Task: structure prediction
Amino acid sequence: MNSLNFYPLININFLIALMVLSLIVIFIGFKLKAPGNIFRAMLLCLIILSISNPTIISENRENIPDTVAVVLDLSPSQDINNRKDIAQKTYNNIKNELEKINNLDVRLKTINGERGSKIFEPLNSMIGDVPAERLAGAIIITDGQISDAPTLLDNFNFKSPINILLTGNKEEKDRRLIIESSPRFGIVGEEINIDIKVEDISASSPNALVSINMNDEIEQSRSIPIGEIVTITMPLERAGITSLNIEVEAGKEELTLQNNKALVEINAIRERLKVMLVSGEPNMGLRSWRNLLNSDPSVDLIHFTILRPPNKQDITPVGELSLIPFPSRELFQANLNDFDLIIFDQYHLRGILPQFYLKNVVEYVVNGGALLDASGPSYAGPYSLSLSPLQNILPTEPTGDVVLQEFIPIMTNYGERHPVTANLKDNISNNWGPWYRMVEGITIAGDVLLEGPEARPLLVLNRVGQGRVAQILSDQSWVWTKPGSNKGPQADLLRRLVHWLMKEPELEENELSARIDNNTILITKNSLILDNKPIISISPDNTKKEIILEDIGKGKQIGKILSPQEGTWKFSSGNSKIRLIVGNSNASEYLDVRTTDNIVEPIVEFTSGSINWVNNENLPKIRHLPKSKLVENNDHIKLVKNEKYFVKSLQQSTLTPWYLILVLSLFLLFLAWYRETK
Result:
């Protein structure tokens, strides 16, 4: 490329002044008709030209290619109908056409949508190293369901045309279930409200049947009006994660059934744990119970110790007694169901609680309550609780003997595998300290986790109706709080007992659980009996598979699924069934799978791009032209030709070499002199 440039040898102001002065002299010469004035005018022009120093610059240029980004969206919503085939075919044709265009750098990217249909985030990373003035534009092949489309276009820094090629059909119809609102947390014992809506413009009926499944156990169905927000009320009955699987029946026209269902997970927590502790007499273990229960700020503890039975007679005046009457009616009849846990600590029949109230305790447990009995020597005597209505729920029956000898509690085979006791030895570096007394009993029902001498049951757990009962046949657990050789996991043991009685999921003895860790599903199964049967897994695409778990001891078996598919996984083992969400099963692209241009239309208008539907074989033509020549026509794919270049080499040559100027000047001077002499 050649160009003419001027580089004056003097200041430009002086040059202009010289030009003006020369014009005045030439004008006066012509006015006076001076002989040889034409030659003097030519000489002055030659001098001014030489001072202007005209130079020819020859540039050796190399064109810089424009950059175009091509993004292929193969997210799960593209699996509907033949969208993926159309998208792949369009992508290949676009790539071939772009390769025919000279001076164009084509960058390609395929989005699999493992984390949702995010298009603009990878688009920005593709062209992050390209200056804005070198961008030709972008071509995005998608169904329009994009989760990261920018909404504040004033800060959108992609100024070149963005061209959208849509792979679906216009005016598609589909039924979908929408979760308008749902809580993330709830309180055990209270109800939660979930707002849902069913949308279906092609429905022939005004209502749709919706089924709700809670924790794969409780299922109900109801008919709700289409297009209206309906509130579903469900109770939270246990702590931990509560899964609600909500599904609407298939509609008349469906693109997919994936958006006909939704999984809602709610973390149910206990607001306050109300515990009643009744001690039959003062004993060394009282402090342990109070320290354990009062250390938890979420526990409301009501504690009564029977210091003076009704039949006790002494000479102390009644006015000097500080004891209050035991509020048996208020606790065991009027407000019994308000308690989450009842603990009898060495309580025995002394006329404090009538048989009627103990029957209320039995009904309380059967209906879902929890009872913990820490028995002392009185359990083997004539005032034993086993002689009361509680015998129907207590897991042991005393023989009448009390074992008075030093012994160390021993885990049974069940104890080695039960979550309450399996890991107790991990927290104590030395051996457990000894206990010195226990009640001999016979196990009637339940699981024995700890044994005393000669395999006598020491800790027994049992389920009764909807409730739970735990019994410790000794009043010696407090000795584990002593330092030195008597040390033991007393606090951990009692805390786990309380949590098991409260039905905490992680302490269930036959529990199947699963979680996500580093893109891997970790499956854990608790079992009291080693079971080598595989568990059944159902992937989001309904592929059924058996998974063999590895036994790692202490009642746990584990399994893994590497790089799992996103969606809702189902696992079952016997009567245990769970669900696990991998990724976001309620992702925005599944909420509405209809092909749409509504999301991308503002972006296309902002960048002066185009939108084309490519559900047929007609591929839009690609126009790579300067920005001034691109017309607003959505029938074409628009790419800006920026015509950028860099100079590889530069050569300068002057038009007024000194020797030529000198010869011409002398010649013109001679002609002017010669003309004046004539």
About this structure: Residues 283 and 475 are 9 Å apart (CA to CA). The domain at 512-582 is CATH 2.60.40.10 (Immunoglobulin-like). The chain has a mean pLDDT of 84.
